[in-house]
Amino acid sequence: AQSVTQLGSHVSVSEGALVLLRCNYSSSVPPYLFWYVQYPNQGLQLLLKYTTGATLVKGINGFEAEFKKSETSFHLTKPSAHMSDAAEYFCAVRGAGSGAGSYQLTFGKGTKLSVIP
Amino acid sequence: GAGVSQTPSNKVTEKGKYVELRCDPISGHTALYWYRQSLGQGPEFLIYFQGTGAADDSGLPNDRFFAVRPEGSVSTLKIQRTERGDSAVYLCASSFGPNTEAFFGQGTRLTVV
Questions:
Q1: Do the beta carbons of residue A90 and residue A108 sit within 8 Å?
Q2: Shortest Cα–Cα distance, A23 to chain B (Å)
Q3: Residue A7 in contact with partner chain B when CB distance is under 8 A
Q4: Angle at the Cα of B77 (from B48 to A105), degrees rounded to 5?
């Protein structure tokens, strides 16, 4: 079984400030981890993903995330927020290997990011 | 097309009516997924197709929901006797295979009044 917890349904940061969106997961198999962004009235766009290898992964738009197995976390960060980063962000987990967990994405409830000018 | 296309983008229907939601995946993608996103929630898995067959329909909430993909490309999600609780955004995604990156469409916002 897999689950994702995103701490904070709504996060506000000032333009230029650090963005930190928290994600913790549970998985009975080695996980693949994802962050998606959703702009209003649009579908989900993949920001970045961790599968294997380097635990610090870089994505689009200056975002990065670090996989910490000991903490079962995959927090999303960006050094300097931009107005265009205002959107909803979803963390998701999928299992490696075969079986239902290998293709089903399990999402968190999302964190809405507001950027204050 | 270049991306996953879903039609209609918005659908308003009366309680008890039947609706069909269409998904046109990226060309060459054999895997297709439907998810449902209720207000304030993350997307939840409904069904997964590999080719023409439903490999996993365990996420369908009840027998009012059904999906098909007769030629291994376009898929239709069908909802009978709609209820107000079915109101949500229905997202479709496709990928080259089950373990590859899934690309999402913009979704169909279904409102049952």
A1: yes
A2: 13
A3: no
A4: 30
Strands A106-107 and B5-7: unpaired
Closest to A86 in 3D by CA, of A50, A56, A42, A49? A42
Report the C-alpha gap between A117 and A14 in whole angstroms: 6
**Interface A:B, Cβ pairs < 8 A:** 52
Q: Is A108 on the interface with B (CB under 8 A)?
A: yes
Within 13 Å of residue B31, how many CA atoms lie on the same side as its CB?
18
Distance of alpha carbon A28 from alpha carbon B53, whole angstroms: 27
A2 interfaces chain B, CB cutoff of 8 Å: no
- pLDDT tens digit sequence for A25-70: 998 777 899 999 999 878 899 999 999 889 999 999 999 999 999 9
Tell if the CB–CB gap between A43 and B45 is shorter than 8 Å. Answer: no
Q: What percent of chain B has pLDDT over 70?
A: 99
Tell how many helices (H) and how many strands (E) occur in chain A: 0, 11
> Does residue B69 surpass a pLDDT of 90?
yes
Question: Chain A closest CA to B95's CA: distance in Å?
Answer: 10
Give the pLDDT of residue A100.
67
**How far is the alpha carbon of B9 from chain A, nearest alpha carbon, in Å?**
9
